[in-house]
Write a structure and sequence with these properties.
- The protein is mainly alpha-helical.
- It has two domains: 16-148, Butyryl-CoA Dehydrogenase, subunit A, domain 3; 162-180 and 193-205.
- Helix content is 66%, strand content 3%.
- Helix 1 (20-48) runs antiparallel to helix 2, helix 2 (57-94) crosses helix 3 (105-113) and helix 2 packs across helix 6 (140-178).
- It is flat.
Amino acid sequence: MQSRPVDGSVAGSATIIHHPDVRRMLMTMRAYTEGCRATGAGRRGGVSTPRTTHPDADGAASENQAFYEFMVPLVKGYSTEMSIEVASLGVQVHGGMGFIEETGAAQHLRDARILTIYEGTTAIQANDLVGRKTARDGGRARLAVAAQVAATEAELAREQKRRRALDGASACGAGARRSSRWSTSSSARDARPTRTPCSRARCRT
């Protein structure tokens, strides 16, 4: 329990989850964590992509291996640095309780601090990336990364196009339903519903 939230959402004392700043820190921790997991998954995906049906299996294997090796210092350097930030925010979320061993938050911070040491210091990872992997083999690693980025962007573009098409179809149907009108002829016997076309520009096309 903590004091009244500054946004006035609770009249009296409330649990810390009701405080906007605590929510901000928790969402920041989540964003950093998911970002690091995504980079790690991308590194593994680069080397585990099926190559058996590729017309140039050896070339694809070499390209994927170059991408994997290029990503290693990036994943290690970024993830270990962010782990310290996330664990530090975890202590801050708990406030003074964060330094008490009962919560375990301080232990997470100590465990995260060693990662930048035994996984290779950040400077070593940076030197490995810039001094060895970026310049070697005529920039083969850079080309591999560029190819992976281009493939990912193309896949995202296709997914966005598909989503727009689905959204457009559902919006068109909704617009047509909203614009439906009943009209009757002069004879009540011939009365029948008439659907008016959707007035939205994208529906008219």
